[in-house]
Amino acid sequence: MRSRFYLAIALFVALPLWSQVNDNGTAAANDAGADDSRMLTPAPVSGAAYPMIPESQERSNYLRAGVVFNTAYSDNVLGGITAKPVSDVDYSVWPTIALDQTTSRLHSVLTYSPGFTFYQRTSGRNEADQNATLDVQYRLSPHVTASVRDSFEKSSNVFSQPDSFSGASVLGSTQVPTAAVIPPVADQLTNVANAELTYQFSRTGMIGGSGTFTNLHFPDPTEVPGLYDSSSRGGSAFYNHRLSKKHYIGAQYQYFQTLAFPTGPEFETQTHTLFVFYTVYLKPTLSLSFSGGPQYYQALQGALINSHSWSPASTASLGWQGLHTTFAANYSRTVTGAGGLLGAFESNTASVSARWQMTRTWNIGTAGNYAIYKDVLPVISSTSSEGGHSIFGTVSLRHPIGQYFDAELRYTRLHQSYSGIPLIATAPDTNIESISISYHFNRALGR
Predict the structure, then answer these.
(1) Please, what are the domains in the chain?
(2) What is the model's pTM?
(3) What is the CA 323 to chain-centroid distance, rounded?
């Protein structure tokens, strides 16, 4: 896992040097909308999340640093480890540094934020965390673009992460197999990496391919009874055709393999999906996408289970980035090997995220998610997981205090129903109220 992250860092360092050598006056990536010859990569195949920062707050070529102090009250810090939910107050501090660079060929964003969380009563849960993301987009030539994205997180409390869930990412494509169940407080390591290459071979034609890797690891299994380590890998290839300036259609083939690692034979789920997609750009910053097609899946567990069948898969998504408001929503139906669970599941998920700058000094954000997982295996082994559903919602209010400080209030509620998972079955609800104070400064680069 570390080797993949260090490789991504090496790419981050090397690409700016490469761009200096190949600076031949090609159009900047940010000016794509002004160049009618350049095609866009629609949301169903781009692999990127919809932007959740209003246009008026966007900036590039900057160095940002700061620190976030957060205190939160939770009515369920131990999940189902105890028969009765345990409440506690935690305190966390998150130093943060972010580097955003843009040239005529390159756009790269690197963010690193270590964290330290302390509990008032359950001090055995005190933990040092890590959070790092890398996003690089590079134009190899006027018609070839490469992108690399990597996100690594070592957390003990997903709700104490900086900006956790208040601006939850919403994708326009089918969801990559990730954690289906959220442990309220448990050590876990997650890594999601994606690489993509696109080639526009004509004014109206584009092809591309991508590879994706995810990993979920629980260092202490006793903290998450009923959940298991898992990993997935996959790839896709697509054809994208521009009907007009606003209308795009195309097709995509997608493959995923998900492995879960209980005690005994591992569970394996493989899926092959063929999507046909359509995207319309109602405005340069407002798009609507649909995709659907047949999916073939196969679920394996040693000699115990070998099940395969066909199922329909579909997605629909909307993204809008206004001057003071952003909104994104996604619905996805697919068969997948859900992260942390054993078996193959028919998943129906819906996500929404919005942010509104009400005034110059007041900002409100909200996010929500609904997911239901239904086991599709006709034969269930004694170790396989049962399906379930979850509902999540959060709302936050942010206000600056002077030039360098911000204050934020946040309320989060999580309900999970998984009868076969002891961690969730006895304590399905979590409510969290938090307040944070952040200090930050920005410095322009290259000026």
Answers:
(1) 2-444 (2.40.160)
(2) 0.84
(3) 24
